[in-house]
Structure of MPV17:
Amino acid sequence: MEKRRGRKTDESSGVKINWRRTGRMFLMGVSLGPLTHLWYSHIIERFIKGTGNKMVLKKILADQLVAGPWFCSSFFFGMGLLEGRGVQGAIGEVKENFLPVYLVDWCFWPPAQFINFKYVPIEYRVVFVCTLTLCWNTFLSYMKHRHGDYKVEAPAVSVIENTQS
């Protein structure tokens, strides 16, 4: 087994695991997860009640126009920060990835949310969304890393070391 820059390669299978990238994806999931829970179990139901077709369409529109852009932007911004790109680099991540991902979002989530809002009982909606989010996060990871992983550069010399010489 070979180990390089946070990746372990199993030479027998050729599978590479980038644990740093996996850790960043985990942190984004942990940070956005509670907000997802609030959105689907409390917020959207407070403002748009019911499971009739008209109410379901309103919930889907609210999800696509409020939650979709917010979660998409938060993901790319947070990943940029976790990679050490700084605020401007994180904003660049959002600018580069938002539109193509948001267009796919409109194909993936509305049919899923129709099922969710129409047929899934409210107490299971978060579980339903989280199950689909596993697939969605695979796509997000692909979009985020399709040009390769960003290499975090460590500072050459720290300020404290310079002042103690």
Q: What stands out?
A: The helical segments are 19-47, 53-82, 86-119, 125-145, 159-163. The chain has five helices and three strands. The first strand starts at residue 2 and ends at 4.
